[in-house]
Amino acid sequence: MRGKLLFKLVKWTRAIRIFFGGYEAMEEKHKLFELPFPLTPRQIYKRLIPDGYQYNTMSTTYKKQIFTVRKLTDLDHQIHLRFYEAGWVSGHYELQPDQWPI
Fold first, then answer.
1. Is residue 12 a contact partner of residue 57, using CB atoms and an 8 Å limit?
2. What is the pTM of this model?
3. Which of 2, 63, 68, 69 could be a cystine partner for 53, CB 3.0 to 4.6 Å?
4. For the chain, how many structural domains are there in total?
5. Residue 57 pLDDT > 80, yes or no?
6. Kindly report the CA angle at 53 between 50 and 58, in degrees rounded to 5?
């Protein structure tokens, strides 16, 4: 029961962040490539999860972003990818934020 409630809370807060999100300069700064055709979140998940990526629930969310994943590279670092409706992907290598809570 508690797990379901936590999942719903995270999903609800993500919806709010998508509604208010949008930081175009940051999105453009980290733009990597464009997919040859759009993929659904489920298709992205099926392709990346077996490769060691995991869904990233607590990342900043931008408008028109449909999915986000991360892959831990070591104890302190991760590769973070964001997928957008238009088919382009942004990403960066960063410190793993949940290792250093506020």
1. no
2. 0.68
3. 69
4. 1
5. no
6. 145
